[in-house]
Amino acid sequence: MMSNNRVTPEQITSLLDSAETQEAVFWGKELIVSFKLPSGFTICGRGACVDPANFNIEIGRRVAREDAENQLWQLEGYLLQNKLHEQGVL
């Protein structure tokens, strides 16, 4: 039986969709996207390639977002675990 004590893909998507973003390209081959979450906390996602001739901004944005999503899974998981611990649930 699955518990409701979980982080969902919808939560992660909602956080990133509501974030403000700024991005910068370095060396013609690396994209850094800073996501400012609704709480004001920021995370950075990164997308890069080896050869600047292969750099594609849209692919870089997708990869940077996936990087940020992976970080958010960990952060939101920690937040939930800590909350449940404080409530004596886990």
Detailed description of the structure:
This protein has 90 residues and is an alpha+beta fold. It contains two helices and three strands. The chain has helices at residues 9-17, 57-86, and strands spanning 20-26, 30-36, 42-48. Strands 1-2-3 form a three-stranded antiparallel sheet. The protein is elongated.
Instruction: Give the termini separation.
Output: 16 Å
Average pLDDT value?
95
The helix-strand sequence is HEEEH
Number of strands: 3
Main sheet? 3 strands, antiparallel
Shape field: elongated
Structural class of the helix and strand makeup?
alpha+beta
Radius of gyration: 16 Å
Helix content: 40-55%
Question: How much strand content do the residues show?
Answer: 15-25%
Enumerate the spans where pLDDT stays under 50 for 5 or more consecutive residues.
none
What is the number of helices?
2
Please give the order of strands in the largest beta sheet. 1-2-3
